[in-house]
Specification:
The structure holds 2 protein chains of 2 kinds. By secondary structure, chain A is α+β, with helices and mostly antiparallel strands. Chain A contains 10 helices and 14 strands. The longest helix of chain A is centred in the middle third of the chain and has 51 residues. Helices cover about 40% and strands about 20% of the residues of chain B. Chain B contains 8 helices and 11 strands. The radius of gyration of chain B is 20 Å and the shape is elongated. The chains are: A alpha+beta, B alpha/beta. The interface between A and B is large, with 46 and 43 residues.
Chain lengths: ~475, ~220
């Protein structure tokens, strides 16, 4: 438990960190390991190959010696070498012909001029080793008198005119191998680093592009949540489309729940209002003390029902997401309805709204809002009502509804909104209209203001959130 | 005056029958949608009081069915559902007025009187232009039998154009006939209304004659019958 503790944050942070980082890290670690391994492998192979080539050269020198070495009267004579390095002192190329006794000790017979007065130091046991494999070279490392590192070959073979076989040794400065190997390493490391960086970049790009639909999905979900889209419409790859489908189903379910809430609420209203209507009518038709009480209580019940229905609708509203409503459509259908309701008066509603103006919220709520304002205007107007919807900045819209009625004195406007009081009993209507509008507008973060209209009556102005079409 | 009352609540029905009888109406009562529909279709009533929440067939369906069968009897909807969306649905189905429960009997009677008076207006001939039809008496229009939902300004515009079909009508002329007083004499207004009317009746029924105005016409291949 305690031992596992310090590891946990790292593991967790990797788990929680971005998918891109995880994928790039995993792919990066893996490919860097492979590249390092490849680097070692290549280096090894290259070294092996250059050592073999070097040894082939040594072998060649030994053959040259063997071919030309002569024996005269027991004395071994070495051939003249074409390689000038055999004559230049300490040139880095040396040869030696020696004899090996039974114990394996080596005694030099002839050596190249390049060794000068010194001798080629052979490691112990080389004589014995070479004797065991006559005709085959034994390779070893040694140093020349200047201390330079040499690579050498030793081979035991017999030469005509001499009973005892002799040991041929050829040695050469191995710096050339090491230099080549070092050059190779430098190039390889450089190339592998570039390759590694390229791979990681490719992996990063692949992951970014591969995960692009995921980012697209996130953007779309955000749009739905902010009410800028109703559902996900993107074309997603096979792995994501079920998720997108589920999200859409979730959004649809959400809307369903809201709808069901509304239906329940409506059913409750219907169930309660008919008995209330009966009670009220009955009470009015038989005047008396009991009738008064019944009527007052029934009116109170009706007020409670209205109040709680609105609360329930508001609760349902806060659950809904991604709704958008075309303002023009709602103005149009309510205009037709309202003109029919106030047909007697010949009320005319002139509505204007830009084609693509959308309210961010539920259709029923906008209908309720506009319906109540228009009804109020219809009650008070002489003939003309004007409704104008305009965008107000990127996120809001204003809706002004004016009439040519008597208007409302400034000092009484507050009252109408706050109390929802019925100001004039002489005109029909519940009197709650503008209070409901105010409540709805606030629920959406907007507001309601009352002013004077150029038409002569009241101007009701509502600010509401809008969605870019 | 003969009235059909379609209402399922027995107490409310009894009260209303009583009140309507006192006011001098002859009342037939149907307790469900099917019976209500049958009576409204077969008997000549002067007005119908229709509840929306009815057993067997809901009020809106009954109303839509009547209107499809050309039953033009004025209908007053009586319902507990006071959402504007439901009121709009009611008027779209062909209702002439709407009253929400609970209500005062006096108000119901007043509305009923207004309804009967309004529908008694004298008939005038229908205007037609291809599949487009306009009934000035009921202030209703339809395209190929489908009722149109027109605002009064749109209706006025269409009415004027149909009275002068075949002639090019200038914007100024349309503005003058659209508003009763000097209201908003901006000729762009006309474009807005022409656009909306076109959306509702079909793009090609109103032709724009560049520089002159607009002309309403039947679609190609449509007879004026």
């Amino acid at each position: 438990m305690t031992a596992g503790r310090p590891r946990q944050p790292l593991f967790k942070s990797l788990r929680r960190s971005s998918l891109v980082l995880r994928l790039v890290l995993l792919a990066g670690v893996w490919s860097i390991a492979m590249l390092v391994l490849a680097g070692f492998g290549l280096n090894h192979l290259f070294r092996q190959a250059s050592v073999q080539r070097f040894e082939a050269g040594l072998e060649e020198s030994i053959r040259g010696l063997q071919a030309e070495t002569t024996v005269d009267n027991g004395q071994v004579y070495a051939p003249p070498m074409t390689d000038v390095r055999a004559y230049r002192p300490y040139s880095g190329f040396y040869w030696q012909i020696a004899e090996v006794d039974a114990k394996g000790a080596v005694k030099s017979l002839v050596k190249s001029r390049s060794i000068w007065d010194s001798k080629l130091t052979l490691p112990d046991g080389i004589g014995a080793a070479a004797t065991r494999t006559p005709g085959t070279s034994v390779y070893f490392d040694t140093t020349d008198p200047l201390g330079k590192r040499l690579h050498a070959a030793a081979q035991v073979s017999s030469i005509p005119g001499r009973d005892q076989p002799v040991l041929f040794v050829a040695a050469e400065n191995r710096e050339s191998i090491d230099e080549a190997a070092n050059r190779f390493i430098t190039i390889i490391v450089g190339a592998l680093v570039v390759l590694g960086a390229g791979l990681i970049l490719a992996v990063y790009l692949q992951v970014r592009i591969g995960l692009a639909p995921l980012f697209g999905l996130r953007r779309e979900v955000a749009l739905v949540r902010r009410g800028k889209a109703e559902r996900l419409v993107g074309d997603y790859p096979a792995e994501l489309s079920p998720l997108a489908g589920e999200l859409n189903a979730l959004v649809a379910h959400n809307q369903d729940v809201v709808e069901r809430q509304r239906t329940h609420v409506g059913n409750l209203a219907h169930a309660l209002k008919t008995p209330l209507a009966v009670m009220l009518t009955e009470a009015r038709s038989t005047p008396g003390e009991l009738a008064d009480i019944v009527e007052r209580q029934a009116e109170a019940m009706r007020a409670h029902v209205e109040h709680h229905l609105r609360r329930a609708r508001a609760a349902a509203r806060s659950q809904s997401t991604g709704e958008r409503t075309d303002v023009g459509e709602v103005l149009d259908e309510l205009t037709v309805t309202m003109e029919r309701i106030f047909q007697e008066k010949g009320a005319t509603i002139d509505w204007r709204s830009p084609d693509d103006l959308c309210f961010r919220g539920e259709r029923q709520d906008l209908q309720e809002l506009v319906g109540n304002i228009l009804e109020n205007a219809g009650i008070w107007c002489k003939r003309n009502i004007r409704a104008t919807a305009l965008p107000s900045g990127a996120d809001w819209l204003t809706l002004s509804i004016e009439d040519d009625g008597p208007g409302l004195p400034a000092e009484r406007r507050e009252e109408v909104i706050k109390r929802g009081a019925r100001l004039d009993e002489s005109a029909p209507g519940s009197g709650l209209g503008l209070a409901i509008v105010d409540e709805l507008a606030r629920a959406y973060g907007g507001d309601l203001t009352l002013g004077d209209s150029a038409l002569g009556g009241l101007m009701v102005k509502v600010t509401l959130p809008r969605v870019e079409a | 005056m003969r009235i059909l009352l379609v209402e399922d609540d027995p107490d409310l029905s009894r009260q209303l029958k009583l009140a309507l009888g006192d006011a001098g109406y002859a009342v037939d009562h149907a307790p469900d949608g099917e019976e209500g529909h049958f009576l409204g279709e077969t008997e000549p009533y002067d007005a119908v009081i229709l509840d929306l929440g009815l057993p067997k067939m809901d009020g809106v369906s009954v109303l839509e069915k009547w209107r499809r069968e050309n039953v033009a009897t004025p209908v007053l909807i009586l319902t507990a559902r006071d959402n504007w969306s439901q009121k709009v649905a009611g008027f779209d189905a062909g209702a002439d007025d709407y009253l929400t429960k609970p209500f005062h009997t006096e108000e119901l009677l007043a509305r009923l009187r207004a309804l009967v008076r309004r529908s008694a207006g004298h008939a005038s001939p229908q205007l037609s232009c291809g599949g487009l039809r306009l009934d000035p008496r009921a202030a209703r229009a339809s395209v190929n039998g489908e009722p149109l939902r027109l605002t009064s300004l749109e209706y006025r515009l269409l009415h004027y154009m149909m009275m002068h079909q075949g002639r090019v009508i200038s914007r100024t002329e349309l503005v003058e006939h659209l508003y009763d007083q000097d209201f908003d004499r901006d000729s762009n207004t006309i474009e807005v209304f022409i656009g909306r009317v076109r959306k509702k009746i079909g793009q090609d029924r109103i032709e724009t004659v560049r520089g002159l105005g607009y002309r309403i016409m039947a679609l190609e291949g449509e007879s004026d019958a």
